[in-house]
Amino acid sequence: MPELPEVETIKRDLEKVIVGKKITDVCVHHPAVIRQPSPDKFKKGIEGALIKNILRKAKVLILELSNGKSLTAHLKMTGQLVYPGSGVKSRVSFHLSNGKNLDFNDQRLFGELRLLDDWRSLKFIQGLGPEPFDMSETRFKEILAKKKTKIKPLLMDQSFISGIGNIYAAEGLFRGRIHPARPANSLSDKEKELLFKEIKATLKEAIEAGGSSVDDYVRLSGERGGYAKYHKVYGRQGKPCLACKTPIKRIALGGRGTFFCPKCQK
User: Fold this and answer.
1) Which of 42, 94, 125, 231 is the most buried (most CB within 10 A)?
2) Residue 258: burial class (beta carbons within 10 Å; 0-12, 13-18, 19+)
3) What pLDDT shows up at residue 68?
């Protein structure tokens, strides 16, 4: 699933090409991805509106429209936004006033499109914790001190800290030299400080590289993100650790595959 860096990359790409454009027509090829309201009301509520602004909350994209409504897109596992789109793989195509299409592609129909009067009313958004860039180091340390949960599942808990998923939890923990199965409250203050610093640094670097294309994620242009080649542990099971040469291990933790170095991470 695209995480904060991937969705932020798409947001920045969208800002450059569609803000100020009018949505002249909405072509719904597969209504299953439209979760709210009905496809007919969705279409009627969007057509003729200008795209005023693009926002991102954790892993959700928000297009604020001139009619006061907001179009939200949650890509989930296989969703893609592509511009200019061809319509070939599109589940929903938004025809714009410049004659080009913004396509929402989603092979497995996990993604979600919604048209809302107020995007803040979305239950998922209401349940989000702060993003790493909006949380202070002091607050991060305070919360970890109260949690017996294993540190990697906790970092992926969107109600605790939002935007981090499997990739960047694994990468941040490696850079912070923390074993993913450690209880959060077992970390020393120095370990917490380093972990917080490395999580933010990893996210910034990933944004600069356009995100990580390890599955279906692509940038708005359809091009792959460039950060996967910089992964230290994610997807590197059996390969030598880039720091100590010990083979990278993969275990299941919190129902997700977890990559780490058994020597560097304690």
Assistant:
1) 94
2) buried
3) 97
Check if the beta carbon of residue 244 is closer than 8 Å to that of residue 263: yes
**Mean pLDDT, residues 46-51 taken together:** 98
Helix, strand and coil content of the chain, in percent to the nearest 5, comes to 30, 25, 40
**Model-wide pTM > 0.70:** yes
Q: Can you tell me which residue has the tokens 């933010």? A: 200
pLDDT tens per residue, range 215-262: 899 999 999 999 999 999 999 999 999 999 999 999 999 889 999 999
Catalytic residues: 2-3, 59, 256
